[in-house]
Amino acid sequence: MYQTTLSHRSYHFGDLRELMAKASPARSGDYLAGVAAETAEERMAARMALAELPLKTFLQQVLIPYEQDEVTRLIIDSHDQPAFAPIAHLTVGDFRDWLLSERTDSATLARVSAGITPEMAAAVSKIMRNQDLILVAKKCRVITQFRNTIGLPGHLSVRLQPNHPTDSLPGIAASMLDGLLYGSGDAVIGINPASDSLPLLEKLNYMLDDVISRFEIPTQSCVLTHVTNTLKLIERGAPVDLVFQSIAGSEAANAGFGINLALLEEAQLAALSLKRGTVGDNVMYFETGQGSCLSGNAHFGVDQQTCEARAYAIARRFSPLLTNTVVGFIGPEYLYDGKQIIRAGLEDHFCGKLLGVPLGCDVCYTNHAEADQDDMDTLLTLLGTAGLTFMMGIPGADDIMLNYQSTSFHDALYIRQLLGLKHAPEFGLWLEKMNIMDGQGQLRDTALNHPLLKQLPYMEAF
Question: Does 401 lie in the same domain as 262?
Fold first, then answer.
């Protein structure tokens, strides 16, 4: 039992799961699950008790049973004891102070990363202010490569997301070229298809590959379909760059997605065998989001933010090019308003980066949440200062297929101009060569006869 005394009142927490859950900032998903603190005072008492907890406790007491959960087995069996050694003597509170110390630099964080478990990262995040999460995440460096280099300090990449509600190839092409002319697309050109039809998925892969090859764009493509569909596409000889899959923090939740670790490994090996990367071989793309375990009734009483951090253990195992938290997409049942979405985005980014995962964020909300675009502007600005790996670029910030609000090509221009952030270097050189950006990264006026615009009639022939 964990306990502490606050204002002459004793608070008792029955086990580590309860302590972690009640130390979490208030959010609707934890209330829905019945694990949240009942009062702000109880939440503070839980944080005080959590701060005194030795980090090594998380190696001795697992939140989801080892025998029942392959994610737990992955976390425990892959734990790097030598990397953990420099921080093994710390409590959660000491760990916070160590992370914030000026002496703890990027190289130091990289050396201990493999020794930090998701539960340790989640625990320390619960006793940190927003500014703490931003400052530490800024110091974390996670660099990945496929056809360009993502995650360099002072850089921010953008996923160009040209979705269409009917998978219209001309409509997708128009959005894609629009994004390219605004300088978006260096993270990936990624389509969420409305259909699971293999022939249609194959057409989308060939279209993306044709555009990238025809204009020699140093970026990668991805059709965000289920991993089993991607394996079938590889078997059919389709030009697959990245393998996509949504992942969650428990074996049961992943089973609901129709996946397990063995399947992900099979897909990674299949993609690596294609040898389509030119500067690196990070071939996986994962998406996550707080609330996924709860929505699948697969959280085992663990709070949603800790479940989310556990998903990053899976991402770390497969060395992805990209991982992003789709922070406000699941809805207000899990993150009720702008305040909760902002906090969750900062937590997820911090935990992912601390664990050595290249974490981006889909800064987004659904229309029935108590949030608006001003909240998204705030979160994007905060994440930009925190060293966000990549963001979303969607026409008008309004995804007409998935029906949610995200960030636009113009938002990417804003954050780059505000903070002086650059494109992936290979992509930046291409933008200059194509006369889309100048040498200072400023957008040029594009003439109507730009070669990219001439591509539109060709797309209608697919």
Answer: yes
